[in-house]
Design a protein that fits this description.
mainly alpha, 16 helices
């Protein structure tokens, strides 16, 4: 309403351009996160909008839509409304950032599963902070949001996400596991293990092949055999993933080949 009122009239747009250095984005409702993008832009120009609606030019302008002009002014000067904008942006920011990160050409297939868990936790923290709730308490609003997010994840999650997650050596490192007490290594996560097994059955239809791969994965995930090398363990947290597998994965050729394919794959947020 604010955007349309300003941009659909030449005189109002001239006043707006005098006070605001940025343009109001015109985003179709069907575009990605259009409401969030608009709210972010409004917040970015908040101070300029305040100066605009209390200016002499705004007060002197009475050509038409006096009632709408009054409504726009009341909305812009309403601290409660701006608090709601801040709240919406606070709990949607983790989701928005994750979708943006997945919508690039950078390899991130192996990051999606962990990003999803982290995103949901950040959304919960933002909502609980606003409602002043303790972690053990229940939030009806968060329950609704969580149901929507889990439903979307169940729709878009594939065994490949879990397999790529399982082949990321970083998620087995002491450094990563110690960052959060609730974290577990991929081979100890029941959901990840189930989907990984399903994926390996498609990649390796023969039992003899799967038996070899299963042993290779057991050595990799438990840091046994050649994976027990001190340099391999020390560098699994911060070394480039492809370089790590090229350097330390030669004892597991089947798994190494699979890892080198999956860990360089981009993802897409189009379906989300």
């Amino acid at each position: 309403m604010i955007k349309n009122f300003i941009m659909n009239h030449g005189m109002r747009l001239v006043m707006f351009n005098k006070f605001v250095p940025l343009k109001l984005l015109s985003i179709a409702a069907t575009r990605f996160a259009s409401v969030i993008v608009m709210l972010k832009r409004l917040k970015l120009i908040k101070r300029c909008l305040l100066e605009l609606v209390i200016s002499e030019q705004w007060e002197a302008y009475r050509e038409d839509d006096v009632e709408k002009a009054s409504n726009v002014k009341m909305k812009v000067l309403d601290d409660t409304w701006w608090d709601k904008v801040d709240y919406i942006l606070s709990f949607t920011a983790p989701l928005y950032e994750m979708l943006r990160a997945c919508d690039t050409d950078k390899p991130c297939l192996h990051l999606v599963y962990d990003m999803w868990d982290t995103m949901i936790e950040k959304v919960k923290q933002a909502i609980y902070k606003h409602e002043r709730l303790q972690p053990e308490q229940t939030s009806n609003f968060y329950d609704v949001v969580h149901t929507i997010l889990v439903s979307r994840w169940n729709k878009n999650n594939t065994p490949l996400h879990c397999l790529a997650h399982s082949l990321n050596p970083r998620y087995y490192s002491h450094e990563w596991l110690s960052e959060d007490s609730s974290r577990v290594a991929p081979h100890r996560d029941p959901e990840v293990a189930k989907e990984r097994i399903n994926c390996l059955k498609k990649y390796f239809p023969l039992m003899s092949e799967r038996r070899v791969v299963a042993q290779e994965f057991a050595n990799f995930s438990s840091m046994a055999g050649d994976f027990s090398d001190s340099d391999s363990i020390a560098q699994c947290y911060d070394m480039d993933l492809k370089s790590w597998w090229v350097t330390y994965g030669t004892s597991a050729p089947a798994l190494q080949c699979l890892a080198l394919k999956l860990l360089v794959q981009p993802s897409s947020s189009s379906c989300a």
